[in-house]
Specification:
By secondary structure, this protein is α/β, with parallel strands linked by helices. The chain contains 13 helices and 13 strands. The longest helix has 38 residues.
């Protein structure tokens, strides 16, 4: 009898001998034992269903999961071998261009989340700026990018990686987004673009995109500076079209030249798929597109990554077909309603004030404690985790609002009305516990603040 034919032991060797960590394993193990090993290791992570921090989709239908499984082995970049997958990408880009009100024929790309989409969109802006400067006989040194402190860290990464000066508008303790008056003083002939955020990760609010557009139109006329807007709609691109359809933030505004959106957030697809869409084909410089002769076919490629799976892109197309405009509207509206319900329960408790709930906002609840108490938001997060297992993030805002501490609960498709009701009560109960003991244990509080576990 061979090793793999023997009955598997009830207690596998790794149970008492430990798991591979530093050295490459000398010997393998049966598949079921390897499965149990990995399952038990990652099983110590937090429960995605109770994770109120993540924007990422944590549930999809069985049919979507089947499509994902059936396409895990296909490589997106192999267009010669998988031409229909390449066509699916083009269809999704065209559908998103339609959703974002592009004025005509356009182009874009499927990306590894919004991080790659942002890098590519910002590179296109830098290339366009450089070409215009060269045509005018002007220097192409010291390009800059203007944005608020409410952006995702990927914008700072772009500036560092691609040698662009970041010009950052700090936030204020009474406002956590930016507008035209904040941005205009930072603009000059070296500004490659202005970034406007649609649905910040901090509060779920949007920058004043219309006002920023109007200001840039005026700057173009007064100062002869044609500065584009890139809208970072990573979170909001699948929210605003369905619940705030009359709000202009997309290609209906003439200075908006490119938009990124994350399919794995409110696009309702598992991670990680992102999308970049340009206003029209002229916004994508030819120098950034490579004609790749690979496996017998020449294809244009506009990516930072090369080999990557098809499955999440296929899942996105499934969701477009499955839900359509009406279905997405129904789903996002239901999330927004549950967020409003949860926010109302917290506000009515008399312990919290809501941030951003009086305007357009992502389906989330951003809130902070009111009055003087013997504990703070970090204590509440730790107590809720200790009592009920909810992963409720607490954090300070970016400069110059770093003295403001908030809590935030994402309301995704898995947080139904019953769960929202339970969550609201659990947060209030945690506060009552803290009222009695005067705060969280220092060790637990340190773990919450440093993100080392709950």
């Amino acid at each position: 009898m061979t090793e793999h034919e023997r009955p598997q032991a009830y207690v596998p060797p790794f149970y008492s001998q430990g798991v591979p960590k530093d050295r490459f394993p000398e010997h393998g193990m049966p598949p079921r034992q390897a499965y149990r090993l990995v399952q038990q290791e990652v099983g110590l992570d937090g429960d995605p269903w109770r994770n109120l921090a993540t924007f990422v989709t944590t549930w999809m239908e069985p049919e979507a999961r089947q499509l994902i499984d059936e396409n895990l082995h296909t490589n997106f970049i192999d267009h010669a071998e998988y031409p229909r997958s390449a066509e699916v990408e083009r269809r999704c880009v065209r559908m998103l261009a339609d959703l974002f009100n592009a004025p005509g024929e356009t182009t874009g790309a499927r990306c590894q989340g919004s991080s790659e989409a942002i890098m590519l969109g910002a590179l296109a802006a830098k290339w366009r700026w450089r070409k215009a400067r060269e045509k005018a006989g002007e220097s192409t040194e010291r390009p800059n990018l203007v944005f608020g402190g409410d952006v995702h860290v990927v914008w700072n990464k772009f500036c560092r990686y691609f040698d662009v000066e970041p010009r950052i508008v700090p936030l204020r303790a009474d406002r956590f987004t930016v507008g035209p008056d904040d941005l205009e003083p930072l603009l000059d002939e070296n500004t490659i673009a202005v970034v406007a955020v649609l649905g910040t990760t901090f509060t779920g609010q949007a920058d004043a995109v219309v006002g920023i557009n109007d200001m840039l139109v005026s700057v173009r006329e007064r100062r002869s500076l044609d500065i584009p807007i890139h809208v970072d709609a990573a979170s909001g691109g699948f929210v605003w079209p369905f619940i705030y359809p009359n709000t202009h933030w997309d290609f209906r505004l003439e200075q908006v030249r490119s938009i990124n959106v994350s399919g794995h957030k409110f696009g309702l697809v598992y991670p990680g798929v992102g999308w970049l869409v340009f206003r029209d084909r002229e916004e994508l410089p030819d120098d950034l597109v490579f004609e790749e002769n690979y496996l017998g076919r020449t294809d244009p490629t506009f990516t930072l990554n090369f080999s990557t799976g098809n499955s999440d892109m296929i899942a996105q197309y499934y969701m477009f077909c499955r839900l359509g405009h009406d279905g997405y509207g129904e789903a996002i509206t239901a999330m927004k309603e549950n967020a409003e319900f949860l926010g109302g329960r917290l506000r009515d408790s008399g312990r919290f004030e809501l941030i951003g709930a009086d305007g357009e906002q992502l389906p989330l609840v951003c809130f902070r404690l009111t009055g003087e108490r013997g504990y703070d938001e970090f204590d509440v997060a730790g107590q809720v985790a200790s009592e009920r297992g909810w992963m409720l993030p607490a954090y300070t805002m970016p400069p110059d609002a770093q003295d403001v501490t908030v809590l935030r609960a994402l309301v995704r498709s898995n947080l139904g009305r019953s769960a929202a009701e339970l969550l609201g009560q659990d947060i209030v109960d945690a506060c009552e516990t803290l009222d009695k003991k005067g705060g969280l244990h220092p060790d637990m509080r340190k773990r919450v603040k440093t993100g080392t576990g709950y």
